[in-house]
Amino acid sequence: MADLRTTIGGLTLKNPIMPASGTFSEELTEVFDLDCLGALVTKTITRGKRSGNPVPRVCEVNGAMLNSIGIPSKGVSWFLQNTLPLYRDYEAPLVISISANTADEFARFAEEVSVPGVAAIEVNISCPNIEDDGKAFAMRPGATGDVIRRMRSATHLPLWAKLSPNTGEVVEVAQAAEEAGADALITANTMLAMAIDSRTGRARLGNIMGGLSGPALKPITLRMTYQCARAVSIPVIGCGGISTVDDVIEYLVAGARAIQVGTATFISPSTMPRLIRELDEVLDARGLRSVDALIGTVDVTDEAVVVAECVR
Prior knowledge:
alpha/beta, 9 helices, pyrimidine biosynthesis
């Protein structure tokens, strides 16, 4: 068997496969052993209770899914008292995904969840910043750096910044997160999108717009992964449209040190353990001893590099 271990922000994972936030819960214990995963990533929680967005919250489109869940949450107290204990029997590192409305609230929240049993914090900076007219923190380098810097002073835990594909400053935002103290980046959250029912003329989501995920998103987030991996020295975790072992390999070759699986789990709950098995088989077939042998090995010509730099 090949060595599938990878290191993300001070954490050594047994393999590079983990769930994307919002697509994973403790109910998956009925499908497979959660300890087969590299890490466990919770759905995003908020400090206070939150009801979420109006229905319908999910719809299927060609090659993708749209969702506008709205981060429903029972709050941090409920999570710490009722949800966190459920994961204490597992060896896989637990990553808590959090969301907040202001940079100061992010910092206070980070301090509250820095408790035994939590291995790292995923920072959902793709959420709206009420101090900047509702624009997502991850849209701008300044707002990104401010959040991560304040969180860094509030917790000793590794911080994984989850970036947005909706910004035109991908590299600058990634560098701002690194400079402010992020230990890893996740590329990326869903892309803002919309669908309309042609028969009724009504938006197919109750919140009108939502996040695009699934195979249609992959070329965008794969490009982001490549750009960010070249621009920062901290690990990058690829996320978006991953359902096959070829998808996993593409992200690793682009520079990701790990990947997150989201929408594919809704279609087949056993997707992640299957990808772990198949990745091991591919490495063995290619005569590669470790997953590190794939990371960042994308073959680009000088001409392709020039084009990529121009686009960046």
